[in-house]
Amino acid sequence: MRIDFTPHHLAIFLAVIRTGSFSRAAVECGLSQPALSRTIQAIEDALGQRLFDRTTRHLDLTPTGRELHPIAERLVTEFDSAFDELAEFIAGRRGRIVVAALPSVCAVLLPRAIAAFRADHPGVDVLIRDGLAGSVADAITGGRADLGLTVRPLPEAHLSYRTLLADEFGLVCRADDPLAGSTPIPWAVFGTRNFIAMHPTSSVRAMTDAAFLQAGIAVRPLYECAFLGTTGNLVAAGLGITALPRLTLPLTGAGGLAWRPLVEPSLQRALGVLTRVGRTLSPAASQFVAVLASVAASA
Amino acid sequence: MRIDFTPHHLAIFLAVIRTGSFSRAAVECGLSQPALSRTIQAIEDALGQRLFDRTTRHLDLTPTGRELHPIAERLVTEFDSAFDELAEFIAGRRGRIVVAALPSVCAVLLPRAIAAFRADHPGVDVLIRDGLAGSVADAITGGRADLGLTVRPLPEAHLSYRTLLADEFGLVCRADDPLAGSTPIPWAVFGTRNFIAMHPTSSVRAMTDAAFLQAGIAVRPLYECAFLGTTGNLVAAGLGITALPRLTLPLTGAGGLAWRPLVEPSLQRALGVLTRVGRTLSPAASQFVAVLASVAASA
DNA sequence: TAATTCCATGCGCCATGCGCATAGACTTTA
DNA sequence: TAAAGTCTATGCGCATGGCGCATGGAATTA
After folding, report:
1. Last residue of some domain: B64, B90, B116?
2. Which residues, other chains included, contact A35 with Cβ-Cβ below 8 Å and sequence gap of 6+?
3. Could you identify which of A33, A64, B90, B254 might form a hypothetical disulfide with B232, taking C-beta atoms 3.0 to 4.6 angstroms apart as the criterion?
4. pLDDT digits over A42-81, tens only?
5. Based on the domain organization, do B56 and B102 belong to the same domain?
6. Distance CA B150, CA B163 (A)
7. Each residue of B249-264: pLDDT tens digit?
8. Of the candidates B73, B90, B107, which is a domain's last residue?
């Protein structure tokens, strides 16, 4: 007779050894004595060997039982620790999350979220890959990242997007610029001043272009910067003004700048979580999204 | 839902990974596709997590599945190798046998039996503890030896004895002794010559005393030797004659001795296997007994 | 649009595992 | 010496779970 051994079988065997009695082992295992007795018999039948030499008064391991003893101990321990380990992962207490994010998110939202998350999940590593909107989406599509933190992408069948917060566009000028005094400021202002643009592949540029279109003005970019730091320094140097979402301001790295809300149109850059549809998130990643949402809500 | 995971569950999980398909995995596992599908679902329900992101066209591990993968591999391997190991033991190809035996058996029967046994069972170690009849029986009673090779002991409830061979008593004298010419020789001969006896605790002494009683003669031992080598040398020196079972002759260690069958009564010392009742022998030990029996039969 | 290929699900069957009651063996106690 | 007590084994019936068969439903291909 060939049965499929389970850790349960082995645990029962070990309980008999530990207690030195079928009845006591049955109590310990939460079974009736007949059930336990038959489980031992089933193992013995499967092995073709007795495990215990037993009478009503005596119970001893047979040589085969003695041989199985350490094996059973090892297997049960292995099983338990393996599933404990897995349970840690499922509980979100262990794992690795790869987050692809826009530089601005990396600079502002992510650090706070990671700090809050790691406080509760010290066993989870969070890896960051920063990049522009296109590369974030590619990382998600290609499976190189679990989560993307980016602007709303063009709708695509296998991408799922959930907005976390709206980052408002505003004018960025020198603090001593007269514009810094009036608020709010219409986008039309860029028709009268030098505009320092971001690089055409950036998500900010796509939105400023759209705003100009909506405001009905034609703006000729004076510079096209790949990095916000460059943009900030150009503005600080008095070479022109620009429009940036509020959260990107710290990335300009320049002092003496003012940010004032822009209207007509009032424009917000949606920042959110990008995932791949049909791909289950790890428990840790799901919980990280929740932390992100609460951090974004309190921002 | 909490199920009892078995290596079978894990093997099915691994088969799906290996084949990249539920249907192919089902074939590989000798199951129907629905059965396999439900087994995976059962694991997923138990863990509260999907293991595969699957459509009819695509199958991918989820993070939890990826986490379980190496764990499952390890556990299945552990289980297999553990039971392979146990199977070796049960087949009698691995193990350790402790044999307690009389010196004469150690010298004559055991070496041949061990040689024959080890040729077929290179993985089994055979340990020998030699001692007189009493200590052999004690070793069995006390569980310090698996098998005893000794004379038939006094019947005792927990000892089981099985005769392997009958070792015939004969006269031992110098080869140039006139007695060496006549055969068979009656025990009464010891009434007319100096008798060199074995020590009172030895099994041989018990039998020679009984023979004298049966032959109706009174014999006064000249010496009482603990070792057969001493006895042999005393005989060789011409100090007397003695009676020994045939198989003990090589242990006398003396040259120039003759052995002639004794009659009136003709006496045989039974040599056999002593075991403890109610104590299962290891598979290797059982097989060793079989080898002993066949070696004894051909002796 | 039809055919094909997968995975999921409804259904019924049967083996397995369980508890209850009790038998049987052995020891202890009166 | 007999009765009581303790421990494992077994008969029995029930519920659960695992399985195969048939089929549904979704995605892809011809």
Report:
1. B90
2. A26
3. B254
4. 999 999 999 999 887 788 999 999 999 999 999 999 999 9
5. no
6. 9
7. 888 877 788 898 988 8
8. B90
